[in-house]
Amino acid sequence: MSTMKIEDKLAVNKFDIDKDVHIQLKEEACKNCDVHSCLYVCPADCFKLGESDNITFAYEGCLECGSCRIVCDKDAIEWTLPRAGFGICYQYG
Ligand code: SF4
Ligand code: SF4
User: Does the domain made of 6-89 have the CATH classification 3.30.465.10?
Assistant: First the structure.
């Protein structure tokens, strides 16, 4: 049986990126966060830790799973789905 790595599975999906940003972070809350739970749950690696412990976020690869919104204990994520017809289109993954 062949096994696919997560990166390979993600690569078969396609995106029609909504130019209206559907997820935004409240920067002030993130500055005061020392757990950074979002880093560990996002399957698409949308969150990154910067050199000065700042969180950066890129919504374009979002898989719309909602995990980040659930784990953030500071209610710092303004989260909606992309507009109809935009966002992730799952292929085989
Ligand atoms: S989104 Fe939530 S969990 Fe992630 S850094 Fe900001 S406050 Fe912390
Ligand atoms: S909804 Fe899921 S895939 Fe999208 S940014 Fe949050 S954790 Fe990552």
Answer: no
